[in-house]
Amino acid sequence: MTTETETLARPTAPPLRRRRPGGGRRALRSTGKHVMLTAMSVVMIYPLIWLLVSSFKPNSEIFRDLSIFTADLTAENYANGWNDLQFPFSVFIVNSSIIALGAIVGNLVSCSLAAYAFARLRFRGRNLMFAIMLGSIMLPFQVLMVPQFLIFKELGWLNTFLPLIAPKFLATEAFFVFLMVQFIRSLPEEVFEAARIDGAGHFRSYTQITLPLIMPALATTAIFTFIWTWGDFFGPLVYLRLPETWPVSVALKGYLDAQSSSDYGSMFAMSVVSLLPMFLVFVLGQRFLIKGVATTGIK
Amino acid sequence: MSSLGELRDIAVRRRRGGARGKEKYPDNKAAYLFLLPWTVGLLGLTIGPMIASLYLSFTEYNLFRAPEWIGLENFSAMFGDERFWNSFRVTVVYVLVGVPIQLVLALGLAMLLDKGMRGLSFYRSVFYLPSLMGGSVAIAILWRQVFGKEGLVNGVLGWFGVDGPGWIGHPDFALGTLIVLNVWTFGSPMVIFLAGLRQIPEMFYEAASMDGAGRLRKFFSITLPLLTPIIFFNLVLQIIFAFQAFTQAYVVSGGTGGPADATMFYTLLLYKEAFTELNMGYASAMAWFLVIVVAAFTAFNFWLSKYWVFYDD
């Protein structure tokens, strides 16, 4: 999957270690390590696989036989679950997609603008503002929750996607600003110097030099924004009370409430549907995700 | 470098009196334009709301009538409320038990994943995946079943002849299932540790080998000290995040914080006060108390870091 990081991580083969006696013991240790890691992998991933397999089992079988090895599979749960709530599940998927897309565009534009200023420009108050920006990462959002709700209510934005999208256009997710600042700082000074000599102002230097060069950081931002907004539960819970405005996360909670306790199959099936986009993005964007976590410490 | 490292650097520079004070600022105008969206967001969605919620915390406010100033009444009601203290206790247990276990596991597995070993990227992906999905409703739903009376965990225990309880529905174990869920997402701190381990120069280990240091000695004399800034970073951030955990407790308990308030996280009680009971003033007081507690934990962490975090500058 990530062959690139693999090769990067390959050691420069310190010959000193090789000289040590006891090659057999090392092989043993290596085997033991792989056994441990494999066992751990199974523990970590088993619940997810169980969820997937169970979503294809008839309801009566799910808890009667907990194993994931079964021949008796059916797609019935998916057909049932899709239409279990007031609206078909496609409505919730579309809602989630709109919110995610809006949030991605917002974060990309606003965070890159702020990051350019922090990384490239010299201005009064930069250190203080930068510190405030970093500090805001650590502020518990609960303290903003009530007043923000009142603001959006005053604006008539309840039961619209705006409270979930508009703030992203104001660079409120400082993690991404920081990620991009780090990335811009690592670019060679000469590139900007050359642009300046050619008469490019800051705006052109931002659009034509910086943005193309920080594509990896933009990709990381887009991927994380997608995963967070797709999974976000709290925001929609507060702002979206009408079922037709629900995103996937809140709709799923609806299954839990509405369920006449026995129809686990369709609940599992829709859970799988809701996780699928996250999983795909994870597989496709892994490289960027791992990098992003390593540089900023985001989830 | 991590965001915490940056903050620390800025603080250090300020203390040293900053030689940059007299420099010119050639880009003032451009910078403020570039920062316009961020500034509007900071003032309108962060600083403004902080001031507003501080004000509201001294008032009684239910959305329908104008806020009424009641001084410290919200706070005294809060501190006299057994439910408030219960939610505080539940959250602190969740943080103080869950975060250390999560970090030890993350570090342990990062240590096992040697540079260039076979299957490295596979293991890393498998360990990392849960931390991406762990906050979602689907996983919380899954968790209800995994730890249910007939769930996976009891299925496994059944092989050993143990008849497990319904973990989710049991007041003594419900919180534990949420701690396990948080531990399950150790992947992201693990990736941060991995990145940190890669930055330790190979020559340190070579030199230690030549001096006859064994594996243990190398771990305690090289790896651990050089990793302390990253352990610190993870510790501070994971504690802050864990204090704010919400979705999992909400979904796993079906929105009740039950059984018997065993999973009534602080944030859950706060949400209920604000948006179910519409006690917006009281909720604001709770929010500010949370900020103070989180700030105190963070400050304590920073103070403690003097004694165990190793900076080589």
Task: Explain how this protein is built.
The complex is a heterodimer of chains A (299) and B (313). Chain A has 299 residues and is mostly helical. Chain A folds into 2 domains: 20-81; 89-296, MetI-like (MetI-like fold, Orthogonal Bundle). Chain A is built from 16 helices and no strands. The longest helix of chain A is centred in the C-terminal third of the chain and has 33 residues, at 264-296. Chain A starts with a helix and ends with a helix. In chain A, 43% of the residues are buried. The model of chain A is unreliable at 1-19 (pLDDT under 50). With 313 residues, chain B is mostly helical. Chain B has a single domain, classed as MetI-like fold (Orthogonal Bundle). Chain B contains 15 helices and 2 strands. Chain B has helices at residues 3-15, 28-34, 36-56, 73-79, 82-112, 120-133, 137-146, 152-159, 174-184, 187-198, 202-210, 215-243, 247-252, 266-276, 280-308, and strands at 59-60, 68-69. Chain B has a two-stranded antiparallel ribbon. In chain B, β1 (59-60) and β2 form a beta hairpin. Chain B is globular and about 75 Å long. The model of chain B has no long low-confidence stretch (mean pLDDT 91). Classes of the chains: A mainly alpha (299), B mainly alpha (313). The interface between A and B is large, with 111 and 115 residues.
Care to count the β-strands of chain A? 0
Q: What is the CA–CA distance across the termini of chain A?
A: 21 Å
Largest sheet of chain A: none
Give the tally of β-strands of chain B.
2
CATH class of the largest domain in chain A: Mainly Alpha
Describe the SSE topology:
The complex is a heterodimer of chains A (299) and B (313).
Chain A: H1 3-9, H2 15-18, H3 23-54, H4 59-62, H5 76-82, H6 89-120, H7 126-136, H8 142-154, H9 162-165, H10 174-185, H11 189-197, H12 202-213, H13 215-231, H14 234-239, H15 248-258, H16 264-296
Helix pairs in contact in A: 5-16, 6-10, 6-13, 11-12, 13-16, 15-16
Chain B: H1 3-15, H2 28-34, H3 36-56, E1 59-60, E2 68-69, H4 73-79, H5 82-112, H6 120-133, H7 137-146, H8 152-159, H9 174-184, H10 187-198, H11 202-210, H12 215-243, H13 247-252, H14 266-276, H15 280-308
Antiparallel strand pairs in B: 1-2
